[in-house]
Design brief:
By secondary structure, the chain is of the alpha+beta class. The chain has 6 helices and 13 strands. The strands form 4 sheets. It has a 4-stranded antiparallel sheet with strand order 5-6-7-11, with no helix packed on it. The protein has a 3-stranded mixed sheet with strand order 1-2-3. A 3-stranded antiparallel sheet has the order 4-13-12, with no helix packed on it.
Length: 302
């Protein structure tokens, strides 16, 4: 009888050291490669993938259960869940539940086609003390029997689909005030002296994506900035989550829901205003951005 000893790979990084973006890209590339296989090969590859995921999930469930049962290990487990790679892995296997905002938005995706087929839509604004605050648009925002039915559809979906939600409140559709004074958007004869930094052509910023930038003014003032391009609508923020100031380079931009989610602890923001939807009152620090002759300028100095 022979035994096999498996030695740990010396070039394999721990999850805390792994490059989150490279790991995610590797997964995306592998899944994309599957589409290029013939049907029989794709079926075999899919079965291998499903079998490996089943083994991984069984092992992860055992690890999590035993760590939760041990007082000393429980604290380590909670720290591990904060790691973006570990959190992604546990989320993929549905071992940890998504935050209520993410869960609620997923539920709304299931009813949005029905709302839109009637000329309506819904936006989740925030969740507070078990109540989901939403805004309804189009045919949903009226007094007819049809609009009442659509509002009831939204309420039923959220209350039945998200355990932490016990009620739904519809907010009035009022215009939100601008967060940046008009004066701060003006560019004088010497923009650089006023703290403006030229980012580059607007066409160079990828649509429906975010771009992390390290900018410096002529006076030497440096700033880490992210520019969010949501459907060609540009917004610029300091590259710091309002929760613990961690960078948002790998934040998840959900175009359908108009949200930006921090990869560290799941804080969710309105992508175009920076308003925090997870913790009302919190806010990403928005910085002035404007486009002149096709060039994007961001004001990071005073």
């Amino acid at each position: 009888m022979s035994t096999t000893t498996v030695e740990p790979s010396t070039d394999r990084q721990s999850s805390s050291e792994a490059d989150f973006e490279k790991l995610a890209k590797r997964v995306d590339d592998a899944l994309a490669a599957l589409t290029g296989l013939d049907e029989s090969a794709r079926t075999v590859a899919q079965e291998v993938k499903d079998a490996l995921e089943a083994v991984h999930r069984a092992g992860l469930v055992t690890i999590v259960q035993r760590m939760r049962a041990d007082d000393a290990a429980r604290a380590v487990l909670f720290d591990l869940v904060d790691d973006p790679v570990v959190h992604m892995l546990l989320s993929l296997h549905e071992i940890v539940r998504p935050d209520p905002m993410t869960h609620a938005n997923r539920v709304l995706v299931t009813v949005r086609p029905q709302l839109q087929s009637h000329g309506g839509d819904v936006t989740l604004v925030r969740i507070e003390d078990g109540t989901a605050f939403v805004r309804l648009d189009g045919a949903c925002n009226g007094c007819s029997m049809s609009s009442v039915t659509l509002r009831n559809l939204v309420e039923s979906a959220l209350v039945e689909g998200v355990p932490s939600i016990t009620g739904v409140e519809v907010l009035p559709n009022e215009p939100s005030p601008t967060l940046i004074p008009l004066e701060s958007l003006r560019i004088g004869l010497d923009p650089a002296a006023e703290g403006w930094v030229k980012v580059g052509p607007a066409a160079s910023l990828p649509t429906d994506d975010l771009t992390a930038l390290s900018l410096s003014t002529v006076s030497g003032e440096a700033a880490e900035i992210i520019v969010v391009n949501s459907g060609q609508r540009l917004s610029a923020y300091r590259n710091e989550c309002a929760h613990e100031g961690l960078p948002l380079d790998n934040a998840v931009l959900d175009i359908d829901n108009g949200t930006l989610t921090c990869p560290w602890h799941g804080f969710c923001y309105d992508a175009t205003s920076g308003e925090c939807l997870s913790a009302p009152g919190a806010q990403l620090e928005q910085v002035p951005l404007r486009i002149d002759s096709g060039e994007v300028w961001v004001r990071v100095g005073t």
